[in-house]
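Something for you to look into today, if you have time. Could you write out one complete protein record for me, on any chain you like? Leave the record below and I will have a look.
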Amino acid sequence: MEDERRTEIPEEACCCLIGAGLFGDGFIPPGEDGLIIACDGGIRSCEARGIRPDMIIGDFDSLGFVPDGKDVITLPVRKDVTDLWAAYEEGVKRGYRYFRIYGAAGGARPSHTVANIQMLTHMALAGNRGELYGEGAVYRVIRNGTLRLPANDPECAGHLSVLSLSERSEGVSIRGLSYTLDGAELTYDFPLGVGNLPDAEEAEISVENGTLLIITERE
């Protein structure tokens, strides 16, 4: 049944995960095939912006009460994953491979920001695609692949940084930016790729063998 449901969801259909932290810049609606999951206190961010989630999931320690409704999944407080990770797993079960994450970067809990970058890494290793939206920044992770971003995209209006999450990322090429690379090696203990700037109609970042964190920062 799960495999049948996966084939019904278009590859570009988006599952939006909304956390209880700083919401970040704007909200990109997921489209008619999309799914919106509010995670615990993320329901407050939804209510403040007129967003109607399709599902609410969490242990509800942040919210302080369990919301009413049939599409509510209550998790135990003591568990091995965050509410946001449980929501990601629910999206995967429903066949989604593209995820946008809001309310989950910055704020008073930097540990959760790092955990959510780890979740982006898991998505990349699993062949899924994720975007983590913070205030003035978008985080993405690619594994043995290529990311292209148009220069006129607001997300590329400022700095773009490329950092290795692997001990070594080999065959790294950066094009369409002020500082370029061609088949270079990046390591996780030296931040060579910080603070680049768009220099062409399209920015292209690729890696042959390794995992890269790509951060775009708006001016």
Remarks:
- The chain has two domains: 2-135, 143-217.
- Residues 1-7 have pLDDT under 50 and may be disordered.
- Helices lie at 2-7, 42-48, 83-93, 110-125.
- The first strand starts at residue 14 and ends at 18.
